[in-house]
Amino acid sequence: MIKSVRLLTLLVLCFFITCREVSLHADDESVTHEHHQELSNDSLDQSLSAKKTRLVSITSEEFIFKDIPDYIVANAKRKFLQERAIVLYEYYIREFPDGEFYSKALYNVANHYFLKKNYTEAMSHYKDYIKAEGIEGHTQQARFNVGMCLMEANQFEEAIPIFNQVLDYYTLSDLHFPAYKQIAECYSKLNDDKRRIMTYENAAGFFTDPNIRAECYIRIADAMMNKKQYYDAVWYLKQVSERFKQSKFYFESLFLMGECYEFSGELKQAQASYQQIVQDHSYDNDFQEKALYALGYSLYKEENYKDASITLYTAIKKYPSYSGLNDALFKLAECYMQLSLPDLAYDIYTELSNKRLHFKRKNTILFRLGELNYKRKDYSSAIEVFQRIKLINDKTMDDQITFYVGMSHYYMEEHRSAFEKFLHLKHQAADTQIVVESLYMLGRILIDVGKFESAVPYFEECIANVNSIIENKNTEVSDQPTETVITPETIAFFRSIKQKALYALGNAFFKHEMYSNAAQYYQQIDNYELSSHDRAWLLYNIGKCYEHTRDYDNSKVYYNKVVTLYPEIDIAQQAAWDLKNIQWKDRFSK
């Protein structure tokens, strides 16, 4: 008798909710397919629906929703009714386990928890529903959702048998192929590519639908790519591109084929695959955008900077909403740098520097921007940009930044700040090239401020370090270890630094009338490859040093070289005049 009263009370409440639903239904006609699927045709499911109806408190409705926009009221009503319906469903499940609508209530509550991502409760109700219904009703979807709940809980091994039950019990259902896919996904999460491949091979053998078979081959190729078996992956991808040209996976197969070739180092074949997608205008496809960008990246990797810049520029203009736009802009700027178009690169780097990017990429962009400001002789801007760089265990970039900042201070005639930067690099830099350049700049700064004697040791240390590197192939010339690789280009760089140091010492000694020392350093430069203009001046300076030390014989030798070897150089006329003057002095002294 008590149960009958409870049931009657529940039915009356359900009737009230249904009536209330009719009055609210005019507020919102948008009911999704997912919501319709959960509704039953019987009066109880209509009254207890968690997705279609909405309920609010009758006594307080006018007060609560006064002066509130209609769409907010509608959402509040919907959410309130959903929760109230679930409460009623759960009440029915507890009180009437033998009731006519018990299994349907279980299924609706399970769906509610599943959509709310409360997978533990959802799985519990789905299992109860399966026990109640056997293989009837919605048990196919319930079993599938149990597997999904287990996957969400990272219980992949436990999920596989559940999906296998879907395959065994419901051979011709719409969930048959999705079950195959979820089994393969479980194996993927378990890093078992072998069984993942076997699962898709079984699916490809079972189905005759070309789209399903094409997708199976695509997923097998993806697993092969994970194992770096690129040529095996290409075989499956060719099956799709050649046998299933009308399938929706045709362009995806071409794109993945391009990636396989690119990963294998066969850039030309990769570019051919990408171009095939880009040039196919039979109908729009989602992969044209990705293929155009991938083609630009491949050309960039091939160091074909001209074609890469054209392709990337086209891609950016055609598809400005591409997810990898910032990376494409960066590569385009790098292409412009390689093509000696710094102004175009500068504009892109400036745009990227104001975006939120990964700190490593942001640091690289700021470094390029600071470097360009330095080359533009905008030294204050260069310092400002370099100071924005946030370094995390990047000693190499830190040293390069310090060097550029030091050079900027030097050209701004802020000698004290520049000296501090170079002195720090002398003792702390890991790159030998920076150490040697810093030694040279320390000497140069001291000469500029009139401290000639203090400058000499830095120049001499710079020269000694270069000699050690060139003669002994030893790059450890500072307090810090270095990884400088000795190549012909590296040796040429060190020789140029040594040459500048020798010139600086020669000129400094000459200025301080220490002509013998000046001649000694000038003569070491004579062994270098110099332009006609530079060598003429060098020979003239050596001759002038000997003239000041009254060594007229050697002085005449060097003046004669200038006059004889470089008559077209302006200094040759001065050398000829000095030669006559020496000859006159020589006769007078005799």
UniProtKB/TrEMBL annotation:
Alphabetized SUPFAM superfamilies for the sequence: TPR-like (SSF48452)
Pfam families per UniProt: TPR_6, TPR_8
UniProt keyword Kinase, yes or no: no
Alphabetized InterPro entries for the sequence: CellSynth/LPSAsmb/PSIAsmb, TPR-like_helical_dom_sf, TPR_rpt
Origin species: Candidatus Auribacter fodinae
Keywords: Repeat, Signal, TPR repeat
Keyword Repeat: yes
TPR repeat coordinates: 363-396, 536-569
Stated name of the protein: Tetratricopeptide repeat protein
Signal peptide (UniProt feature, chain positions): 1-26
Source organism, top-level taxon: Bacteria
